[in-house]
Amino acid sequence: MWTMLSIEIIIVGINRLPAYYIASVSMGIIINFILISAIGLLGGTFENEVKTTKYISNKILTLYSEGPIRKKVKTLISMIENNTPVFSIYGIWTADYGIIVRLFSITTTYLVVLLQLSYL
């Protein structure tokens, strides 16, 4: 939300606000994009690690036909399948590689709407 407001301040205030104010707001937008991109990369990496863990667990199941290791691995696989762990932000958004694309698409759409409304 803060990023969208910042973009609106930049577009509307280009002729009215001092340059240092616009530059500082622009830096805030860039920092927010970098932070959200980092969160998306971490979430995507987490998702890949869960998939790798499941793959390795399945390989271990093929090696052991019985015993305590097989039971623990089966428990781990069932936990991953029944309740897949995800990296989420307050339970609202799932942070994965797609969050970066969604962020840019929302921002671009909002920017186009603001530009259209400011030049009517």
TrEMBL record:
Membrane-topology descriptor: Multi-pass membrane protein
Localization, UniProt: Cell membrane
Keywords, ordered alphabetically: Cell membrane, Membrane, Transmembrane, Transmembrane helix
InterPro entries linked to this entry: 7TM_chemorcpt
Domain of life: Eukaryota
Residue ranges crossing the lipid bilayer per the database entry: 20-42, 99-119
Protein name: Uncharacterized protein
Organism: Plutella xylostella (Diamondback moth)
